[in-house]
Amino acid sequence: MKIGWIGLGNMGIPMATNLLKAGYSLTVYNRSREKEKSLIDAGAISAQNPASVLAASDMVFTMLSNDAAVKSVFEGPDGLLSSDLSNQQGKLLIDMSTVAPETSRYLASITEKQGLEFLEAPVSGSVKPAQDGTLLILIGGKTENHEKAKPLFEILGKMSIYLGGPGFGSSAKLANNYLLGLHIQGLAEAILFAKKNGISPENMLTIINEGALGNGLSKLKTNSILQEQFPAAFALKHLVKDLGLAKDAGLDSVLSTPLLNSFQQASEQGLGEEDIMAIIKSLKK
Ligand code: NAP
Fold it and tell me: Ligand 1 centre and the CA of 205: distance in Å?
């Protein structure tokens, strides 16, 4: 089985590296070519464009920023679906990016029209689970394609959950990231409120982490908060995108609009490339 991988960002690099380590032959492409280096050094082959990745592979994964990026990699010049596909029939394209449910349904339809197969597989979990191969993979598409890709999902994640046709994986992902946004916003607000009343972030984080409110996320973000350093594991701009996609998909609740506004404002203040936890810098202002 020859694998193709397009999109070597914070998530794509560790995920593709794990497939390579598991012994798969891997052809990679990234728009900024220098990000291919660590993969090429580890034995991957570099392709000139997405169409060449498809020609060299039986199954191609995409892990890209947003809907526009995924659409351009599928449909753009030299894109996955741009060339004569008569000898590529039945190949499986798997999009693991977080996009709108509508985009996944669209990609499924244009891919299948050309005689290829499509599966959506967005992930829950950030860079550390991507490195450890413990992502949670949310599947939308045909069950037979899920079965075909399962051996690879078992390398990338601890579990892949089948949710229904194209769009269901993205819908679950957007609901999950809404909760993620609420957790991060709440954690930041609680730390700042406590600090205003003389409780140090160290003490407040100990209270949170040692009590029932401590969770994987609060523990993961503790060092960043204490050191006031927020290198992107999950870039804040991506959460703004996801909250916007959730709104477009019908999320209209008491907290959804203020939450989106808060992260949008942080992004406008220049924090978009930093980690989501950098929301605390924006709230401090
Ligand atoms: P990232 O570090 O920003 O990487 C984005 C990738 O998309 C890069 O390879 C970038 O190429 C490529 N790209 C962007 N626009 C493009 C275009 N127009 N044409 C071709 N390539 C393009 O993002 P990430 O953190 O890896 O996240 C990837 C996806 O997973 C996003 O949808 C995100 O919401 C989702 N996600 C992220 C996390 C996380 O914790 N980071 C967790 C779960 C899900 P360049 O290198 O050329 O810019």
Answer: 30
